[in-house]
């Protein structure tokens, strides 16, 4: 069996390649620009929320602590009045993209480690490029693409945004598979 350390180069190169491809997708192709819409009367909504000084975090409105509360008449009335909201509140100050980009690269490295782990457990050294590409690419697609489905299922995110994210995951999977296939150790 191939050691995980023997796959450090495809792990790192696939993370770098995914980072570059994702940058192209978001900065050049820009098809994700329509993933989120603008709230009507944005300034008024922001002005109305500002006095509450809501801390950064994830929230749902109306909120129920458990299933019993969710079944209460009070909760049902709030829900029927609307709006029902899932929201993430960010700090009000302008933060650079550096931390998020660093975490994205770290995530890509972690995906690369799991791709390497699973692929080395299923494919021997010296295997055909296409076999390595298919297995490692499928594992990478699962990591980058499939997880987005739950956002539309549970949090009602637009399916169009989910499918775009899954398409990105497919591209990242193909890139990762290509690099692992290319750099797979010989027998």
Question: Helices and strands in order, then pairings?
Answer:
Blueprint: H1 8-29, H2 42-49, E1 57-61, H3 67-70, H4 73-81, E2 85-89, H5 98-122, H6 129-144, H7 149-155, H8 159-183
Antiparallel strand pairs: 1-2
Helix pairs in contact: 1-5, 1-8, 5-6, 6-8
Briefly say what this structure is:
The protein has helices spanning 8-29, 42-49, 67-70, 73-81, 98-122, 129-144, 149-155, 159-183, and strands spanning 57-61, 85-89.
Descriptive overview:
- This protein has 187 residues and is mainly alpha-helical.
- 62% of the residues lie in helices and 5% in strands.
- The chain has helices at residues 8-29, 42-49, 67-70, 73-81, 98-122, 129-144, 149-155, 159-183, and strands at residues 57-61, 85-89.
- It has a two-stranded antiparallel ribbon.
- Helix 1 packs antiparallel against helix 8 (159-183) and helix 5 (98-122) crosses helix 6.
- It is elongated, with a radius of gyration of 21 Å.
- The mean pLDDT is 96.
């Amino acid at each position: 069996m191939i050691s995980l350390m023997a796959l450090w180069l495809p792990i790192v190169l696939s993370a770098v390649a995914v980072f570059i491809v994702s940058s192209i997708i978001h900065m050049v192709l820009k098809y994700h620009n329509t993933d989120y819409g603008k709230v009507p009367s944005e300034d008024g909504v922001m002005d109305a929320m500002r006095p509450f000084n809501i801390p950064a975090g994830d929230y749902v409105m109306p909120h129920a602590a458990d299933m019993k509360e969710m079944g209460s008449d009070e909760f049902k009335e709030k829900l029927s009045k609307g709006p029902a909201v899932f929201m993430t509140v960010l700090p009000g100050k302008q933060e650079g993209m550096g931390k998020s980009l660093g975490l994205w690269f770290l995530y890509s490295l972690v995906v690369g480690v799991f791709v390497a782990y699973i692929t080395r457990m299923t494919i021997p050294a010296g295997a055909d490029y296409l076999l390595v590409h298919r297995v490692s690419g499928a594992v990478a697609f699962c990591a980058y693409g499939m997880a987005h489905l739950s956002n539309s299922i549970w949090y009602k995110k637009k399916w169009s945004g989910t499918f775009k994210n899954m398409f990105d995951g497919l591209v990242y999977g193909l890139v990762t598979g290509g690099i692992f296939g290319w750099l797979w150790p010989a027998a």
